[in-house]
Specification:
The complex is a heterodimer of chains A (281) and B (168). Chain A is 50% helix and 4% strand. Chain A is mostly helical and 281 residues long. With 168 residues, chain B is mainly α. Chain B starts with 14 loop residues before the first helix and ends in a 14-residue tail after the last helix. Classes of the chains: A mainly alpha (281), B mainly alpha (168). Chain A binds chain B through residues 61, 63-65, 100-101, 104, 108, 120, 123-125, 177-178, 180-181, 184-185, 188, 190-191, 193-195, 197-198, 200-202, 204-209, 212, 218, 221-222, 236-237, 239-242, and chain B through 1-2, 4-5, 9, 45, 48-49, 52-53, 55-56, 59-60, 63, 108, 112-113, 115-119, 121, 124-125, 128-140, 143, 150, 153-154, 156.
């Protein structure tokens, strides 16, 4: 027996040797992996296998041009939606007059888009004359699927498409008005803020007209609550100040419980803006 | 577009902003008083609407006063109030609604002028949230005034109010 009681020919002590040695190797490997030694010169975590390279988005800031481009894209969302709605042929009989309203709103949005593009061009910026894909993907396409149905997705069409189309239009007009109001705090120049709200104010009027069409009369002017659902009724003037909160749009086929699906819309934020690198496809 | 400025706009109203916002505050107080007068002369349904909208204008005045702090005027714009007192306190419901339709349209234009002049973002945000709802007021009042054409509801050909015509 030696001084530290280590006998190589002893089976018990050999096992202890392997156990101790294995632990030492594992600890060394772990420390090497965590460290910034020669094997990880950039301080990266070691990887097993190959990782496909990724390309980050260019650095972009929501400057005046980006905000105006995004606002233009929302105008095109509205134009495209109204075009689709008109093609559905819903506005017949007692609703025939609504087609004139929709046509007027579409024309207004075309004029707004033109005005915004004019401001951008005048300031030597690059215009963005197409719909905002993210807004389509998040809000408009799901709403239209719920209204018109989508066999592939297993969605049945709404049993009240006209009512739902009006609700979607109210949601879009409210979203546009809120967006202009929100962007006032981000636009750097007072003249651009005024130009934006000059358009936003018209979107607000659109929303008031639609709210009155959905919920007519004096009862539909101020805020009220639906006694059955507990949700707010559409109101021409829902509050004293323009809201920047979530916009609820309730559409689709009624469930067995009598409820429809509610989509929540929000003003375009950083992940939905038409940054300078974004192009119309 | 123009090269982005490296200086962020101020949040609080600047000295030049204050004078402009003081004018807006005086007008909002006067609008509340005019709505109160009209409410007394209106029929049942119109009274509900006028009371609602009048309350909104009081809220605007209070918010502007909060923004202006000690610089806020304590009285309404007397010349503006006097100019419209007669029209706002007599006539049929449709005529009263028509009077306030033109006043709301004028206020929208006035506030758009304010927004295009002031630099402080706190004031700009507040004025923007007011403009948004005053447009809705106008759309509702147009219907109550018996306007049937979409152009009468949606278009705004009014002139902005100015402090020379309506000195505080």
């Amino acid at each position: 027996m030696n001084a530290n009681n280590f006998e190589m020919n002893s089976p018990v002590n050999r096992r202890r040797f392997f156990l101790t040695g294995g632990f030492a190797i594992a600890t060394t490997t772990l420390l090497a992996a965590c460290g910034k030694g020669a094997q990880s010169p950039k301080g990266e975590y070691p990887r097993i296998g190959e990782v496909p390279p990724t390309t980050g988005l260019p650095t972009a800031v929501p400057n005046d041009e980006v905000l105006l481009r995004t606002a233009t894209s929302l105008e095109f969302n509205a134009i495209d939606t109204y075009k689709k709605v008109l093609e559905l042929g819903l506005f017949t009989g007692s609703s025939a007059g609504t087609a004139a309203v929709v046509n007027r709103f579409k024309a207004d949005h075309e004029a707004h888009a033109k005005a915004l593009s004019g401001i951008i061009t005048e300031a030597k910026g690059e215009t963005f004359e197409c719909a905002n894909e993210q807004i389509n993907k998040l809000y408009i396409d799901p709403a239209l699927n719920l209204i018109l149905g989508n066999k592939d997705a297993g969605i049945e069409p709404s049993d009240t498409p006209l009512e739902d189309v009006m609700a979607l239009a109210l949601g879009l007009e409210t979203l546009a008005a809120s967006t202009y109001q929100f962007y006032v705090s981000m636009l750097s120049q007072p003249k651009l803020r005024a130009a934006a709200m000059g358009i936003g104010e018209q979107e607000s009027r659109h929303a008031a007209v639609l709210a009155q069409a959905i919920n007519p009369g004096v009862a539909g002017i101020g805020p009220s609550t639906n006694k059955d659902t507990g949700k707010p009724n559409p109101a021409a003037v829902p509050g004293a100040f323009g809201s920047l909160g979530t916009i609820a749009v309730t559409v689709g086929k009624r469930s067995e419980a009598g409820t429809k699906t509610t989509l929540n819309m929000e003003t375009p934020s950083l992940n939905s803006m038409a940054f300078e690198y974004a192009k119309c496809s | 577009m123009d090269a982005p400025t490296t200086t962020a706009p101020p949040k609080q109203p600047t000295k030049s902003d204050i004078a402009i916002l003081q004018f807006a505050h005086g007008i909002e107080l006067a609008m509340n008083a005019l709505y109160t007068k009209a409410s007394a002369a209106a029929g049942k349904d119109l009274k509900i609407v006028l009371d609602l909208f009048g309350g909104h204008h009081l809220a605007y005045a209070q918010s502007l006063a909060g923004l202006l702090g000690r610089s806020a005027p304590t009285t309404q714009n007397a010349s503006f109030y006097t100019a419209f007192l007669s029209a706002a306190s007599s006539g049929s419901d449709a005529e009263l609604a028509g009077t306030f339709l033109s006043l709301e349209n004028s206020l929208v234009k006035t506030h758009l002028g304010v927004l295009g002049t002031i630099t402080g973002t706190d004031g700009a945000q507040l004025v923007a949230s007011i403009i948004s709802v005053q447009g809705r007021h106008a759309a509702v009042l147009a219907s109550l005034a018996g306007k049937k054409g979409l152009g009468d509801i949606l278009d705004n050909a009014a002139e902005p109010l100015d402090s020379k015509t309506y000195p505080a």
